Amino acid sequence: MPISVSPVVFGPEPLSIDSIITLAERRVESKLDTDPLWRKRIDQGAAIVDGMLDREGQIYGITTGYGDSCVTAIPLSQVETLPRQLYTFHGCGLGRFLDSESARAVLAARLQSLCQGVSGVRFALLDRLHACLQEDLLPRIPEEGSVGASGDLTPLSYVAAMLCGEREVIWQGEVRTAAEAHAELGWEPLTLRPKEALALMNGTAVMTALACQAFGRAEYLLKLATRITALNVAALRGNPNHFEARLFAAKPHPGQARVAAWLRADLDVASLPPQQRLQDRYSLRCAPHVLGVLADSLGWLRGFIETELNSANDNPLIDPDAGDVMHGGHFYGGHIAFAMDSLKTLTANVADLLDRQLALLVDTRYNHGLPNNLSGAPAERAMINHGFKAVQIGASAWAAEALKGTMPASVFSRSTECHNQDKVSMGTIAARDALRVLELTEQVAAAALLAGLQGVHLRGDPLPVPLAAMVDTLREGFAPVVEDRALDGELRLCLDRIRTRYWSLYPET
Ligand SMILES: N[C@@H](Cc1ccc(O)cc1)C(=O)O
User: Fold this and answer.
1) Which of 64, 265, 430, 450 suits a disulfide with 340, CB 3.0-4.6 Å?
2) Which InterPro entries does this one have (predicted)?
């Protein structure tokens, strides 16, 4: 994957999903906006909080307890100690730890939210968060324990604790204590100001970061599934006229039409041998309709995710111009929850589609003359060879697990925290589910891609240029299966290539 040249700038201007992905993959530099007015405005918010404290004003979470405990007044003498209490009692996350890419995405998403300038934190806090990204000092964040409204309080407490030199980090590829890492960097750990722990934790940065990653994977998967479909149409001698432009002008969902256009470009009708059936089975004929739903959803998914990414999503918010406090509920991650629940369903449908195509390929009743299980063994060894039989069974298992993962998380709101958080989004669970469904679907895609490759090899027809070029890139690492062999290593290599977006697919769009 190429390194981007222009750095990502954290500041008042919006960032794209792609910026977060490239940052998480360490393929781009970043910097904080240098505009002195913007920097001044950030500090102005923090000064307003301090000024209110001096005047002994009531501000939720600063001079009161948290959540349901907002009715408990905090004496001014204890206000300074409250932030540490907040991240400390939220140090109860469980489950697996987010990997380094996700942890970077979380830091980036939180930083971008605080850059909106209405969270009442010092510029020094933004600076330190950004320095963590630059030095690749990453919090070790347990995935589980967020209800997604009050944002991601518990997982984000690990960001707050790290900045204060507490808990564990990933530092130079190893698990270390935050205190050790700070000492080696020569950094003084931060002591958070009264609003700062809340500003760091009371938001949607974990779910939004995971949503950015899921979106990027889904975008690539869409193109890959289209290319695999084209290979399978060629392998099965399917009917490319199903993708005619006139047909798609008659039902003009733009994303669906784009998938059909990609298929047309891959399956140059003039160069293909005659088809076997007037109408192919639906997993081929309706591929633009299945993939098109994902294609047409990417626009609104991007809108939901990028609006959340570039929003102030904590509470309370500080208006640095008017100099007052606004109490609200922007930590509620409903948009990300719905986007990720939807993406799960969209993605699992791709798994199902490719699994069905693979089922056609291996079955001599439907594969129009290809050998049983796509085995390339010569006649005298054919009876003991089983080719792609187990790979197809595996793909059915992965597809089933992906489909099972589509249960919406957002409908499982629980009233929690003494009924203060009595309606919550579960967006973080939805985003984690989406990533799991994507992982399973990528596995199905790897199986379908290798099977499609074997299919066109066994068919032996000349291929249209784009497919021939793809097959060329696949020859290295994925030799035709003649005698049975364990294919797990090749499947893993293929998965790795999918994850790193190895093939440049339909780049002009
Ligand atoms: N999200 C709550 C704050 C909160 C913080 C920590 C908690 O444990 C509970 C609630 C609010 O802004 O209203």
Assistant:
1) 430
2) Aromatic_Lyase, Fumarase/histidase_N, L-Aspartase-like, Phe/His_NH3-lyase_AS
Nearest residue CA, atom 3 of ligand 1? Answer: 67
**How many angstroms does the Cα of residue 288 sit away from the middle of ligand 1?**
45
CB 15 within 8 A of CB 112: yes
Query: Domain of 372: which CATH number?
Result: 1.20.200.10
Residue 457 lies in a domain: yes
173: CB partners within 8 A, 6+ apart: none
Chain segment 201-212, per-residue pLDDT in tens = 999 999 999 999
On whether both 166 and 238 belong to a single domain, the answer is no
Q: What would you report as the CA-atom Rg of the chain, rounded to the nearest whole angstrom? A: 26
CA of 431 to the centre of ligand 1 (A): 21
| Annotation marks residue 60 as catalytic | yes
User: Which atom from ligand 1 is nearest to the alpha carbon of 61?
Assistant: 3
- Domain limits for position 414: 210-315+328-499
Stated pTM of the model: 0.97
Q: Residues 76, 194: contact at Cβ < 8 Å? A: no
Q: Look at residue 156 and tell me if it is in a domain.
A: yes
